[in-house]
Design brief:
Layout (H helix, E strand, L loop, with lengths): L1 E3 L10 E3 L10 H27 L1
Antiparallel strand pairs: 1-2
Amino acid sequence: MQEIETKENPLNLKVYVNGKPDLRLIPKEKAESILSAIELEISEYYQRKQSCQRE
């Protein structure tokens, strides 16, 4: 088992995995959902960054 460090972990829980995840095994629909969520996070980040620069 290998411990994974997480950035946002308010409960300070330890996360362990067996081996390294193989991203090729993720179904296409799940991968698209993950990519959409990442895209949204990036978009919101840049919107916040632009609004802070205007102030």
